[in-house]
Design brief:
- The chain has a 4-stranded mixed sheet.
- A hairpin with a 2-residue loop joins strand 1 and strand 2.
- It has one domain.
- It is globular.
- The longest helix is centred in the middle third of the chain and has 12 residues.
- The protein has 112 residues and is of the alpha+beta class.
Length: 112
């Protein structure tokens, strides 16, 4: 399984995410993933959850989400999985054509 840490952004929104491609790296993972019903066919099957792990939902279904930020962001992550790297920004406003340029990571501006 491959894990990526991403910024999910929208208007006035900053959500640190963990995205996991639920395709196995070894036979032990394959066995357990198949028992959960994952196809393990090499196509991105991405579980998304908040990095804060604060008890809020996680899902591998972009249609599960009740808001546009997670629904649009999750679908885009699946479609662009191979292009994404840790720290990348998934900018819903840019994806939907509401802005002309994507947001820059807050990490580039943060004093941490």
């Amino acid at each position: 399984m491959r894990v990526k840490a991403l910024e999910l952004r929208d208007e006035g929104t900053f959500i640190p995410l963990i995205a996991v491609d639920m395709n196995p790296d070894n036979e032990e993972q394959r066995y357990l993933l198949r028992r959960c019903g994952y196809p393990c066919n090499g196509k991105p099957n991405v579980v998304v959850t908040r990095m804060s792990a604060d008890g809020l939902p996680s899902s591998n279904d972009p249609y599960h989400w009740q808001d546009r930020t997670f629904a649009v962001g999750h679908q885009w992550i699946i479609e662009h999985w191979a292009e994404l790297s840790d720290g990348d920004v998934v900018d819903v406003q840019f994806i939907l054509g509401e802005t002309r340029k994507p947001k820059v990571s807050e990490a580039k501006e943060a004093p941490f």
